[in-house]
Amino acid sequence: MSSIALNSLRFSIQFWLSVEIVQSWWEHMNFASFEEAKIFFDSNKKMINATPFVKWVWGKRQIIPQLKKFFPTEYNNYHEPFLGWWAVFFNLQKKQSFLSDVNAELVNTYKVIKENPKELIHFLESFSTLSFRTWYGIYKNVTPYEKEFYETIRAWDRQENWQEQYSEVQRAGRFIYLNRTCFNWLYRVNSKWQFNVPMWSYKNPDFIQKENILNVSKLLNRTKAIIKFQSFDKVLDNVKNWDLVYFDPPYDTLTETANFTSYNESGFGRDMQVKLRDVCVKLDKVWVKFMMSNHNTNFIREIYAWFRFEIVKARRNVNSKGSGRGEVEEVVVMNY
Ligand SMILES: C[S@@+](CC[C@H](N)C(=O)[O-])C[C@H]1O[C@@H](n2cnc3c(N)ncnc32)[C@H](O)[C@@H]1O
């Protein structure tokens, strides 16, 4: 074959390869038109000052600067299948995001903030004008800073089919209010999935956070967030090459005597950690980048032995009563 023919063959292969790459990138970003893409990228130049709307005592926030060093610079869509309270998603504002969790109330809250932030704010603002029937049968006004008010809202989930009796906006309002006013911002439910954390006397807890809710809503819309109630393994149904998945599962227990079936407080045992590892292996095989945080235990290092890992330090309650604070090591596992 002459060199001219060879060159033109090479050129056409290169041309078609680049068309393919552009096309697949376009599909990943889900843009219907150039106009839509332009708006997306223009609006992405500025960071939105949104912070997590729920507090959590073991928040990820403190280790975000350490985690940031390990985030890849190049990837397509972003997935966070253990959405939790302090989602890392807040710091990765430029990608389409797929967010999910198995906490139905948490997922509902994210959805309402995305779709209906003004109604949610209006509902939370109305708390100061509500009246409740007290346990001794008299109507009187109580403020949202009083135990009686708190316990009335908390008791919604003691009713049968309560999720059908209240609107999504009301449930989201309840979730945020209880989080902001309960002891240690804990989320704890009993075996019947009833929230059972007592109220705490914070000085002026801001359970409305008007500006922040509007900003979080903007961010969820900007990143075209798809928010789902589903288990982490379902992430496999939805990933494409070069996406990034960040896993922040309930951590492995720090008690090294624990055996394979021992569970941490959230019932996420070592069998689940292995299931999660298997999901990571599958992602690796289909060219999806993943990053996973966990406690730096022998068990976690063993099951992820053939992946890269880095150690970061986090402040934690280190004894079972939660009264002692100390530093624990976390491991960040990556396949890139
Ligand atoms: C709050 S984060 C854990 C944060 C941190 N890694 C830790 O353990 O200290 C855990 C989140 O995972 C969610 N979760 C638990 N099991 C899950 C599952 N099978 N699939 C998806 N999310 C799950 C919980 O609802 C919770 O929101």
From the structure above, extract its key features:
336 residues, alpha/beta, Adenine-specific Methyltransferase, domain 2, 3 domains, seven-stranded mixed sheet, two-stranded antiparallel ribbon, binds S-adenosylmethionine
- Tally the helices: 11
- List bound small molecules: S-adenosylmethionine
Estimate the helix proportion, in percent.
25-40%
Q: How many domain regions?
A: 3
Could you tell me the number of beta strands?
9
* Radius of gyration from the alpha-carbon trace, in angstroms: 23 Å
What's the SSE blueprint?
Layout: H1 3-29, H2 34-43, H3 64-68, E1 78-80, E2 97-101, H4 104-115, H5 117-125, E3 131-133, E4 139-141, H6 147-154, H7 162-165, H8 168-181, H9 210-222, E5 226-229, E6 244-247, H10 270-285, E7 289-295, H11 298-303, E8 308-317, E9 325-334
Parallel strand pairs: 1-2, 1-6, 2-5, 6-7
Antiparallel strand pairs: 3-4, 7-9, 8-9
Helix pairs in contact: 4-8, 4-9, 5-8
